[in-house]
Write a structure and sequence with these properties.
It is a single chain. The longest helix is centred in the last third of the chain and has 57 residues. The protein is of the alpha/beta class. It starts with a helix and ends in a 5-residue tail after the last helix. Strands 8-3-4-9-7-6-5-10-11-12 form a 10-stranded mixed sheet, with helices on both faces. Strands 17, 18, 19, 20, 21 and 22 form a 6-stranded mixed sheet that branches. The chain has a two-stranded antiparallel ribbon with strand order 1-2. The chain is elongated and about 150 Å long. Helix 45 links the parallel strand 15 and strand 16.
């Protein structure tokens, strides 16, 4: 039924509506999924979330209204006539019950953008765990990295535009960058409205829902206007809520810009503040959750942001700071925020009742009249306690020099609170760093964490480095590297790299790696699981080798231990080389541990440009790394199967980027030292599978890199062999004909040039040394500093010169060209002149010649030039078009030869035809020889591209040819049965028409019956068209002529011009890249002739025979080509890599300089400067106006004071009898509100501050609250008429006689409570603490003390307890140490040194009972009997309820402040660090 209502069916469906039906099916599927999700949500909420409702109707003073605030009609019948509560008074706690909630779902506010949020009505007693589960699991919110609780004025208030913009911009920035939740009151008023407007501005500017800001409103259900629209027993999806500010009255509307609402219901209506307790509990629960679901111990930080506010806001701030929650107060937002901001920088002694009263009157204006004296005292005490915690209070001022937004102030407040933790030590800095990484705020880390006072080691930063890498935060990774992270130490253990690969983001490489892991398990006989898959470096190595190519060695090798069933474990040593001794293989030393490469490779495979750039900067072998990255990325893009996908495009772009990086570094190297740069190209790189830069570039198809002038110079040098590159071609050709010329110096050799350069360098060094040692006459000293002379190069001898000439690839190429022309000449002579039934000597020579060509092709197929294996060599051989032509020509020649040797004349002729066709293919193969030419090579590439265009053009042309030919043949000829004439008429003749051969058989005027056969009986003549009685064609002449005209129009004009345009486009497109492509393809020809035997065909058969004997019979190893692969010694390689790294730094520096000088960068800088200047001018204007207002207020106050002074002078003069002839002037002004005793109780800065812990408002271990005692009212000498403290006795509540209490008075002043409190007696309560110390080591560097600690991870306390004045040791110490050791200690403590004796600022102190302590220190020698007894007690104490432990004397060792001070004095006495 529901399905029919949602999708009404139709009886008939038009065929064109099939796609609409498919779309409808998709919509149905989505609808069903949404319905399923909503049903699941509704079921969960009904089972876990409750609401509250009144179950006892008692009419209030208003008619028809219950005591709960709801009208009578909104009560159920059971509540109106209850039988259980007859005769009772209405009680909120008894007569309100919980019921399943009936208001939840989606809430839509309509308007622009159709803003939709989620809401739920919850009981005020709801478990916070259930609420957190609702938000994270049912609403699918990600756990926050930060909770921002915004509090303040609940009514609309004015705020300056500049501050408002900074608040909105900063709040959104901190929420967006850190992934924070913003918690507010949720209504459309006051500070909540400002938060909502900030979210609205961000949503409109971003234009997308990605990165949505989470703003949760916790509002009281009973004050929500139009709440009835949200009620539905099954939930509303959505509920349409309208913002009605005009008709809301004393209620409030929900803010339309919040994303989630928790509507707290306590069963009453119209009461504000019912949500405060639940909100506080929820904030406390969230602050106890682990940050990012990690096990690091870091919890989600919470910060309170205050704007405006009243007395309720003060209570919120006070309670938050007592819970160690930092608060940020915005100065200039009004009322309470401005009061706190005014006194935040003052010492507590200056924050007096008078000052607070003046500030309250100044900022609260009309509200101040309703404040009572007791309220002002209470608020003064709370404000004093607030500013006594400066590490938790941050004031954001817009008139400071630092021009930053609120986001910086919020994050700085959190870090300041974390840094002030006295018991955290180094963990505090690490926690701050982890918070900064989670927030991704590099600016905060730079300014607050990585300061001069913080000393970081590489190991300290490793967790942050891992989080930054996994969280894709490249700026943080760069910052950590700049501040001491060593990549070598970070990736020292292979588990770290395995974890990085296990945390790869969703990418194509991760999917490939998962398949490989599953395949590995399947091969080992394990069932593949969908759960956790352990990734080892062997899987990564196999996959990377697949991407790089089989020519490389594995980057990571298996360990020498046998693989387990769960995984293949790898061992990467901390340094040096890796040995592979697994599964019976011989150990190798081909793979090295390279942490920079590992980090770069990890970033490249996930296609992360920023992290890959940082990793590339850490690579030593940077050119090879960039080329390998290009190869890997192109391979990944190719295998992704989606050429047009965004991921594939990004991979190709990144591959091109690293090709450019390789070109840039190599250009820098080539410009400095050509020989070193060329050595970089051919050196074997152990870090990248023993490949070379040149080979990686070729495999990656990096044409631009190969086309670089430096690479081409190397190829040219290899092409010339030992001959000089400067030799002209005619000299080489002349020496090929008459080789004795090489002994005359006619040809230049490279050895000669090297000898000349060496001589020049030696001469320069000699001159330099002579100038340095010009004044030294001792020859031995000169020889010593000059050092041993290097081995000098010797000139080539005669045989070496001849072999160098013959083995030069260039010379081989010239001989092979001559040989190939000779082969084609002989082939043509045989075909045209000497093709006899029995082969002649010329034909037999041709067969021998061809046999040498066949042998050479076989040698090329089996010759493993780079050690990549036969299979890969065969694939590369087949991919080459010229090799395909070679195979085709050889096969066709063999087929022609077989037919030619047959006795049958017909087959003999067929063989000759095949050989003639084969001659054409051999001639076409001649084009490959000229690819080496700089002029002809690029043209051949253009011809190849045009041939591809011609192929597709012929496909289009064939459509028109066949269409016109078949139609013409059908019209003219009736039932032609001869196949050859059908093809002539339908294909051949229309094709010739394109080239101007206009047909005559379509025009009756040119018809000749003698040129055709009437019945088609003559095989040499076409069949005549249908004839009439006059023997004239009857076909419609007008139609055939029109068809011909149309055919010529399209075929001759349109298609042929299209072909010309295609050729022109191809030429223009290829012409720019022809030179690059030619240079890239030139390598294959150079490589072929470099490995080719010196003798040309057919004499090459001798070389083939020698190679066969060496390889098959003598088992000689294959020849390695050092010109393409060169292994360097370790020292030389280190020098070369260091030089390459230096060149890379030069290249990066020049690149950054070019970017900074680019037009785009300058425009951006100019725009930023203009924006900063405009903001600075606006700020300056506001500062000037604010300063003027302050100056006018101060001037007005001074005038008022002057008026009072003048009035006092006049009164004094009158009292002395002085009279004036003139009347005194009328003086008016503001009277001061300052009391006469305003200075009473104020202390000078030099005096010690009064006790603070003894004046905490909440007495510990009870629900009793102290009377607020401000700082200046602590002393008993100060008059405090309003002082009415409660009396509290925890152990004896009957002892409340004030006369007895008055006998005992706290020596430090008032505490806000009378009686014994939690202490045992009135007056002083003595506590004795002995401090046993020892040295941990023999060097006396670490001092330790004996502490009592119930938790090993938390600070302990000093042993001891209450003691009577005449007792040397407390009884509690006897229970801890035992009677025997207690008695032994008693005698030794008498000789101990007293560290402190006197009053203790304890939270249990009252006006009549207080704590006094005596602290004695006793240092124990390492070998003393007392030391042995204490160690025995410590070893046996873990099983007791008060375990003992030796702890280091430090500021984090004890909880109590007075105990920390005692430890500080002990450390000072022993001259050790505290």
């Amino acid at each position: 039924m529901v399905f029919e209502m949602l999708f009404p069916s139709e009886e008939k469906v038009h065929p064109m509506d099939v796609s609409k039906i498919q779309l409808g099916n998709l919509i149905q599927t989505n609808v069903f999924l949404n319905i399923e999700k909503r049903c699941s949500l509704a079921s969960w909420i009904k089972g876990n979330i409750k609401k509250k409702e009144c179950c006892f109707y008692v009419e209030d003073a208003r008619e028809g209204i219950c005591k709960c605030g709801y009208p009578k009609i909104q009560h159920c019948d059971e509540a109106i006539k209850p039988e259980d509560y007859v005769g009772e008074q209405w009680d909120k706690h008894r007569h309100v019950r919980e019921m399943p909630t009936d208001a939840f779902g989606d809430i839509s506010f309509g308007g622009i953008g159709q803003k939709t949020g989620k809401y739920v009505r919850v009981s005020s007693d709801t478990s916070c765990e259930s609420l957190y589960q609702l938000m994270t699991e049912q609403w699918n919110l990600r756990s926050p990295n930060l909770l921002i609780s915004v509090t303040g004025g609940a009514k609309n208030f004015y705020i300056k535009n500049h501050l408002k913009d900074k608040f909105r911009r900063g709040l959104i920035k901190v929420a967006q960058t850190t992934g924070a939740w913003i918690l507010t009151g949720g209504t459309h008023a006051g500070v909540m409205k400002h938060v909502g407007m900030a979210v609205r501005d961000y949503t409109l500017s971003s234009g997308s829902m990605e990165g949505q800001i989470v703003v949760i409103g916790v509002a009281p259900w009973g004050v929500i206007h139009n709440s009835h629209t949200l009620i539905h027993p099954e939930g509303c999806f959505p509920a349409y809520y309208s913002l009605d500010e005009q008709g809301q009255g004393r209620l409030s509307c929900l803010d339309i810009n919040h994303t989630h609402f928790l509507l707290v219901d306590d069963g009453t209506h119209g009461h504000y503040g019912v949500e405060i307790e639940l909100r506080a509990r929820l904030e406390r629960l969230i602050s106890q959750q682990s940050l990012g679901n990690r096990e690091s111990g870091v919890k989600i930080p919470v910060v309170c942001v205050v704007l405006d506010g009243g007395p309720g806001t003060l209570n919120t701030i006070y309670n938050s700071m007592l819970n160690n929650t930092p608060c940020v107060v915005l100065e200039g937002s009004g009322r309470l925020a401005d009061v706190i901001a005014q006194v935040a920088a003052l010492p507590v002694s200056k924050v007096t009742l008078v000052l607070i009263g003046q500030l309250l009157k100044r900022f609260f204006v009309q509200e101040y009249k309703n404040f009572t004296e007791l309220q002002v005292i209470d608020w003064t005490k709370k404000i004093q306690d607030i500013i006594r915690m400066p590490h938790l209070l941050t004031v954001f001022r817009i008139d400071e020099d630092k021009n930053y937004d609120v986001d910086v102030a919020i994050l700085q407040a959190l870090l300041k609170a974390s840094r002030s933790d006295e018991h955290a030590g180094r963990q505090s800095w690490e926690r701050q760093l982890e918070l900064a990484v989670a927030w991704n705020r590099v600016d905060i880390a730079e300014s607050e964490i990585f300061t001069e006072e913080s000393q970081w080691t590489s190991c300290d930063l490793h967790p942050a480095m891992f989080s930054a890498l996994v969280g894709d935060k490249p700026e943080f990774v760069r910052l950590l590297l700049e501040n001491g992270v060593c990549v070598r130490k970070f990736l020292e253990h292979e588990e770290t790299l395995c974890k990085l690969y296990a945390h790869l983001p969703a990418c194509f490489f991760r999917r490939k790696l998962a398949k490989r892991v599953q395949g590995d398990k399947t091969r080992r006989g394990q069932a593949p699981t969908s759960g956790s898959r352990r990734i080892s470096l062997s899987h990564v190595s196999e996959e990377v080798r697949h991407l790089l190519g089989s020519f490389t060695q594995p980057l990571y090798v298996a360990s020498r231990y046998k693989p387990t069933k769960d995984d293949v474990r790898l061992t990467v040593p901390s340094k040096g080389q890796v040995e592979l001794t697994c599964l019976g293989e011989e150990p190798t030393a081909d793979t090295v541990w390279d942490p920079g490469r590992d980090l770069f490779l990890w970033a490249v495979v996930q296609n992360n440009r920023e992290l890959a750039e940082i990793g590339w900067e850490q690579c030593r072998d940077c050119i090879a790394a960039a080329l390998a990255a290009s190869k890997i990325l192109r391979k990944l893009a190719q295998e992704s199967g989606e050429d047009d996908s965004e991921e594939a495009k990004e991979m190709r772009e990144l591959a091109n980027h690293y090709e450019k990086q390789a070109i840039g570094v190599f250009s820098e190297c080539h410009s400095w030292d050509t020989q070193r740069a060329q050595k970089l190209l051919i050196r074997i790189s152990p870090s990248w599978g023993r490949s070379t830069c040149l080979w990686l570039a070729l495999e990656a198809d990096d044409k631009s890199f190969v086309a670089h002038s430096g690479v081409q110079a190397l190829l040219t040098q290899i092409w010339c062999g030992e001959l000089s590159v400067e030799n002209p071609h005619w000299k080489i050709l002349l020496c090929m004909i008459f080789f004795p010329l090489i002994y005359t110096g006619f040809l230049s050799f490279r050895r000669d040039e090297d000898i000349q350069r060496q001589a020049e360098r030696t001469e320069q060094q000699k001159l330099a040394m002579d100038s340095v040692f010009a004044g030294i006459s001792d020859a031995k000293i000169k020889r010593h500093f000059r050092g041993p002379s290097k081995s000098e190069l010797k000139p080539l001898d005669c045989s070496s010169r001849l072999m160098s000439l013959l083995m030069s690839p260039q010379v081989k190429f010239y001989w092979n060209i001559a040989s190939y022309f000779g082969f084609l000449w002989l082939f043509a002579v045989v075909l045209m002149i000497d093709f006899q039934p029995f082969p002649s000597w010329r034909e037999l020579l041709l067969y021998v010649w061809l046999t040498s060509l066949v042998c050479e092709e076989v040698r090329q197929l089996y010759h493993d030039f780079d050690g990549s294996g036969f299979r890969r060599k065969a694939k590369m051989y087949i991919r080459d078009l010229w090799n395909i032509l070679d195979v085709l020509s050889i096969m066709l020649f063999i087929a022609g030869l077989v037919c030619r040797l047959q006795a049958s004349g017909t087959v003999f002729y067929v063989g000759k035809v095949l050989l003639c066709i084969d001659f054409i293919i051999f001639c076409l193969r001649l084009m490959a020889i000229f690819t080496i030419s700089r002029n002809l090579g690029p043209k051949i590439i253009i011809v190849r591209r045009m041939m591809m265009d011609l192929f597709f053009f012929m496909f289009l042309l064939s459509i028109w040819v066949v269409a016109y030919g078949v139609a013409k043949q059908g019209i003219l000829i009736q039932n032609e049965e001869r196949l050859n004439w059908i093809i002539r008429g339908a294909v051949y003749e229309p094709y010739l028409i394109i080239f101007g051969n206009v047909p005559t058989n379509i025009d009756n005027t040119q018809f000749d019956i003698s040129s055709c056969s009437v019945n088609g009986s003559d095989p040499l003549k076409p069949k005549c068209p249908l004839l009439n009685d006059d023997d004239m064609p009857v076909f419609p002449e007008w139609l055939t002529i029109i068809m011909l005209c149309i055919y010529l129009l399209f075929a001759n004009i349109l298609l042929l011009n299209l072909l010309i345009a295609i050729f022109n486009y191809t030429f223009q497109e290829v012409q720019d890249n022809t030179d690059t492509i030619w240079k890239f393809q030139r390598y294959e020809l150079i490589k072929e002739y470099h490995s080719r035997p010196a003798l040309p065909p057919p004499f090459i058969l001798v070389s083939h025979l020698i190679l066969f004997i060496k390889g098959v019979f003598l088992r000689y190893p294959p020849q390695r080509h050092k010109h393409f692969r060169q292994e360097l010694e370790q020292t030389e390689e280190e020098e070369l890599l260091s030089w390459e790294a230096y060149m890379k730094d030069n290249y990066l520096a020049s690149t950054r300089q070019d970017e900074s000088q680019s037009v785009e960068h300058r425009i951006q800088d100019t725009a930023e400067k203009v924006g900063a200047m405009s903001e600075l001018l606006e700020r300056e204007q506001e500062m000037v106006s604010a300063t003027m207002a302050k100056r006018l207020a101060k001037l007005e106050e001074q005038v008022s004071e002057s008026t009072k002074a003048l009035r006092w002078i006049i009164d004094a003069l009158k009292s002395q009898g002085c009279k004036s002839k003139m009347q005194p002037p009328l003086m008016t002004g503001k009277s001061s509100d300052r009391d006469d005793g305003d200075s009473s109780g104020q202390e000078t800065d030099e005096e010690s501050p009064p006790h603070t812990f003894a004046r905490q408002l909440q007495y510990p271990g009870s629900t009793v609250k102290r009377f607020p005692v401000p700082e200046e009212k602590v002393s008993w000498e100060v008059n405090f008429t309003s002082y009415l403290p409660p009396i509290y006795n925890q152990h004896d509540s009957s002892n409340s006689d004030t006369s007895v209490l008055d006998k005992y008075r706290n020596p430090e002043g008032r505490t806000g409570i009378r009686g014994k409190g939690a202490l045992e007696r009135l007056g002083p309560n003595h506590i004795l603490h002995p401090i046993f110390t020892r040295w941990r080591d023999a060097e006396h560097t670490v001092l330790e003390f004996l502490s009592v600690c119930e938790d090993a991870e938390k600070p302990g306390s000093l042993p001891g307890g209450p003691a009577k004045p005449d007792e040397p040791l407390p009884q509690t110490l006897e229970r801890i140490l035992g009677k025997k050791l207690h008695d032994k200690t008693r005698s030794q403590l008498e000789a101990g040194e007293k560290v402190y004796k006197g009053y203790v600022d304890d939270s249990r102190n009252t006006d009549n009972a207080w704590v006094e302590t005596t602290i004695i220190t006793l240092h124990c020698d390492k070998h003393s009997p007392l030391m042995a007894d204490l160690n025995n007690i410590v070893e046996s104490s873990p099983s007791s309820h008060q375990p003992l432990k030796w702890r280091e004397v430090s500021c984090t060792a004890c909880v109590s402040p007075y105990q920390r001070e005692a430890l500080r004095q002990v450390a000072q006495h022993h001259n050790t660090h505290f």
